[in-house]
Amino acid sequence: MVLHDSPLLGALVSLFELLWQRATPLWPTGRHEQPGGLSDFDRLLLGYAAVGCTDEATARRTGLNQRTIERHMRRIMDTLGARTRFQAGLQAGLQGYLGDREDPA
After folding, report:
1. Residue 56 located in a structural domain
2. Could you tell me if 25 and 99 are in contact, meaning their C-beta atoms sit under 8 angstroms apart?
């Protein structure tokens, strides 16, 4: 397939660049654990959960036992004040744990 320069292609490239700049990374950005916060490993686990990995799949990817992952996720949920994994994902995103979040103000 050959794509020639066109207004539609230019618009799609511009849209991609705009969305890329506003995207939130799913993986840790190098920040370390803050007092009362989450560690880089915790953010890694949240990233796996955010892309739909089960505790079993996360355990395989990290080389840890599934029960260990479950305990980590429970602690993460407690830290974020979440009752469900979905709430934990929302709180992590709102609090900026899943990537650098700029203040829209």
Report:
1. yes
2. yes
Q: Which residue range forms the structural domain that includes residue 50?
A: 26-94
Distances (CA, A) of 7 to 4, 11, 14, 17: 10, 6, 10, 15
41 in a structural domain = yes
Q: How many CB atoms lie under 10 A from the CB of residue 15?
A: 10
Amino acid at 68: T
pLDDT at 31 over 50: no
Q: What is the pLDDT of residue 32?
A: 45
pLDDT by residue (tens digit) across 40-89? 899 889 888 888 889 999 999 999 999 999 999 999 999 888 888 888 88
CATH number of domain containing 62: 1.10.10.10
Question: Are the CB atoms for 43 and 27 separated by under 8 Å?
Answer: yes
7 found inside a domain: no
